[in-house]
Design a protein that fits this description.
Helices cover about 25% and strands about 30% of the residues. With about 180 residues, the chain is of the alpha/beta class.
């Protein structure tokens, strides 16, 4: 049984409407997962994801590697899957340092990598922004990024501007990306 689903809306200082979807992952008591959906994804579209039987989301990221970004992506994908959202996983190698996953998590990711998708899916790319790119057949392309410093490289800002949305994990990251001219 999943903990109660909590959906809250808030306006940030620059009037960007964020939807915060917070839930505890079933059988994963070591983490709390937060998915932040920025202004262009209406709440009714988010709720539709829970009832769709086919893979409506493709998520690319370093799921099989060590590191905070890999942990974050893995926890988000596994949490969505446990909520009934079918996510096709596309593992990306960034640092070539693999992590030892519990067998059940590895199997969930392996199964999710075999999902079929149809045109119109949402593609989430959880990689450094210089790897962001448009995806043929996607209804929306989302860049999920972290912010390693107080300034955003110019090349990152340009790639972020090619995305339909950029999802960030902190208010600090939102400020840094906004200061670089990235529309959030």
């Amino acid at each position: 049984m999943l903990d109660p689903l909590e959906i809250a809306c808030r306006h940030s200082t620059d009037h960007v409407l964020d939807y915060h979807l917070t839930f505890d992952a079933h059988a994963c008591d070591r983490t709390r997962i937060m998915v932040e959906l920025l202004q262009d994804l209406p709440l009714d579209e988010l709720l539709k994801l829970y009832s769709i039987g086919s893979a409506s989301v493709v998520w690319s990221g370093p799921f099989l590697e060590e590191g905070e970004n890999a942990d974050d992506g893995r926890n988000l994908v596994l949490g969505l899957g446990r909520l009934g959202v079918r996510v096709k996983v596309e593992p990306v190698k960034l640092n070539n340092v693999s992590t030892d996953l519990p067998p059940d998590e590895y199997q969930e990711l392996e199964t999710a990598s075999q999902c079929r998708i149809t045109d119109g899916f949402i593609h989430v790319q959880q990689v450094p922004p210089d790897y962001f790119q448009r995806t043929e057949g996607a209804g929306a392309v989302v860049g999920r990024a972290t912010c390693p410093s107080y300034r955003l490289p110019l090349a990152w800002a340009a790639r972020c501007n090619e995305m339909d949305e950029v999802w960030l994990a902190s208010d600090f990251a939102i400020e840094v990306f906004a200061a670089a001219g990235t529309p959030l």
